[in-house]
From TrEMBL:
GO annotation, biological process: regulation of DNA-templated transcription
Localization per record: Nucleus
Protein name (database record): Protein FAR1-RELATED SEQUENCE
Region (Disordered): 132-158
Amino acid sequence: MRSSNTDLNTEVCENAMVLNAYPIGVLSVIDNVNGADEGWSRMEPSVGLEFDTADDAREFYTQYAERVGFKIRIGQLYRSRTDGSVSSRRFVCSKEGFQLNSRTGCSAYIRVQKRDSGKWVLDQMKKDHNHEFDSAGENSLPTVKQRNHSAKKSSVNVSHRPKIKSFADGGSCPSGVINFKRLRSSAGEGECIPEPYAGLEFNSANEAYQFYQAYAEKTGFRVRIGQLFRSKNDGSVTSRRFVCSKEGFQHPSRVGCGAFMRIKRKEFGSWIVDRLQKDHNHDLECQMGANKKTFATSKKFIEDVSGGLDSVDLAEINNGSIIKISQENNIGSAWYRVLFEYFQTRQSEDTGFFHSVEVDNGRCMSVFWADGRSRFSCSQFGDAIIFDTSYRKTNYLIPFATFVGINHHRHPVLLGCALVANESKESFTWLFNTWIRAMFGCHPKTIIADQDMAIQQAIARIFPRTHHRFSMWQIRAKERENLRSMSNQFVFEYNKCIYQSQSIAQFSTMWTALIEKYGQRDNIWLKEMYEKRESWVPLYLRRSFFAGIPIGKSIESFFGATLTAQTPLREFISRYTQGLERRREEERKEDFNTWNLQAFLQTKEPIEEQCRRLYTRNMFKIFQNELLQSFDYLVTKTNEEATIVRYLVRKCGNEDEKHVVTFSALNVSCSCQMFEFEGMLCGHILKVFNLLNVKEIPSQYILHRWTRNAEYGVLRDTESGFSAQELKALMVWSLRETASKYVESGTGSLEKHKLAYEIMREGGNKLCWQR
């Protein structure tokens, strides 16, 4: 390939043809442009080398890499804070990072920085690699015969690699190890691919991956690269998982399929299948060959042209097409028109209505909205919230998510809704930021959300002091997947450790014993779950306030069956309104019952009468149940130090159930941690109160959020946590909510209208309103 404007040096090496034209005036050290031993062809990178442009530096490093025997990728770039221009660039070894199975975490790189003169200077570098070099090395570099200073800056690298072959037969190698290079696909119809089985060996992890890919194409599914596990000693890869493309729930096409093949590295470098799950939870495709060529082309494009972009971070191969997650949008364009029409209607009716749209490169992405009542609800019940993304359990049509709190009747209350464009850290970060902005800076004490890394990272960034609890449905799914190969006795002892431990020390002891007894020290999943124990083990969760949301149960969706991820566009708004109104009607009924129906007392204890007067009906029933149970407890004083006294509380007839109550003049606590978790005193403390003749519960143990005065329209006496502007907004919403009840009731008939008008006018006169 030649041009009249350039003098290119061409050499064909096996299947690769490399054409290079060298740029003008790159290095000041190049004096003899005709000598192959001078200039770029023999130049070693060193700190202080100077280039005209960053592209010149990349070209230099590319040629150096070809000579040594490795490939490069473009790494990070850094921009000036002043004008946003690129101030430095990194060029790295193609095996940097771990996102592809071909990468080894190599740290070799050069960094060039732009000086005030406009030149680019190599200021940082590392030459050592942690992998072997290509054997081609020197031979792959064309000989420089002549350099023409009038040549344009250009570099073309056309690679013709041998195509990946499938299996022609299932015959094994003499050594019992599958050598993928010896297996060739046949053009006929008699292709036979061996079934994977535990104990099957390969020469390399790449051969195992290619084998599983070929098996998947024959069977009717696609493969993704799953987790890899590394040695603690030297960081080398010790095992890899290849999973069905429908594993997990992070994408609309995924259904949580559990099929996978895991390989483990043996002592002498070969790899063996040590775990295998063949069963799929979805229909298999009867013909996969049609997409094979497109898939291979896309894969090759990702690895070679794009410098190895990976499905984990930046791209995913889906039916042969490349989807960049940063631009992915799971919301159909028609949804925005429908939602915006709804938003305009609501804003004309509710001045407290809030909505926001994420914009990426001029395109609408995620959408968040909350009405005035939801925003006011957050001031009362925003301490413990649920970020519900249950749409991810199935093949969803719309990525609908909700923020839900628990109200004073212990019922769910809506705190905002969203359509999530994609499940990236950036999308969730934007969404949580927007929620805080809508809720006047409210930061919850606790949040229940999925375990996915993108959500974990967004929560850690936006809610740094919030206790993140994992969704139970995800924990259960992970347990089914990772414990299915364990014995029944292991599962029994595992559940006993998780759910019956009475203290942190006891849990740690039982967990360690369990791991040692069943030889699970190298189980990566168990290690990870132990590290995250504060986000899912009940003993750790009970130390934080979760408004009594049960730990061992999955949480019902706020909208239930009224609104699901399969709801069609034409019905979404009507069903959303219907579901929201149904929940709010339930709340109105509970408010009515609380104020108009009186619960029966079952003891003569003064604290029972006190709590009946303060709590809502539902919360009083919970308290009353604890009070009645307290009569079945026995109390023994165990320790007394100054003003602090400890009591052992046991249940009659059950020696295993015992808790320690610590009492002082200032506070009281119990080892069951019911008050910390639910905001309600337990029967153990109530028994100690009875023993000490305490007739009234101290005010700090009556949470305002559980009282009947926490209803909409009533603010607490002090709102020290809010600014003057925020407090004014809360008062506006509070009065508006109360007024709306008069409007709703007063429009039922002319007589009711007159009555409501008189009441409001009388109230206005008391406030010294003027006509």
